Amino acid sequence: MSGSQNEVDEVLRSWLANNPSVVGYVVVNSDGIPIRHHDKLSRERSLHYAAQLT
């Protein structure tokens, strides 16, 4: 799993570049806890969005 973090970062960067209308993202684990969010989103905002999803 040593390269998996870089792979995730690259996929997210590529996805954002290919989808200019997307303004951010939140990645949640199976418990609905945010484990990653876009740089433009605050931690509090990502928690709010995660709560809306679960």
Structure description:
Belongs to the GAMAD family. This is Roadblock/LC7 domain-containing protein, putative. It holds the Pfam family Robl_LC7. With 54 residues, this protein is of the alpha+beta class. The protein has a domain of 31 residues. Helices cover 48% and strands 13% of the residues. The protein contains two helices and two strands, in the order αββα. Strands 1-2 form a two-stranded antiparallel sheet. The longest helix has 15 residues. The N and C termini lie far apart (27 Å). The mean pLDDT is 90.
Determine the strand fraction and express it as a percent band: 5-15%
Determine the N-to-C terminus distance: 27 Å
* Shape call: globular
Low-confidence stretches: none
Mean pLDDT: 90
Order of helices and strands: HEEH
Tally of helical segments: 2
| Total DSSP E strands | 2
Major β-sheet profile: 2 strands, antiparallel
Q: What helical percentage do the residues reach?
A: 40-55%
Strands of the largest sheet, in order across it? 1-2
Class based on secondary structure composition and strand pairing: alpha+beta
Radius of gyration: 12 Å
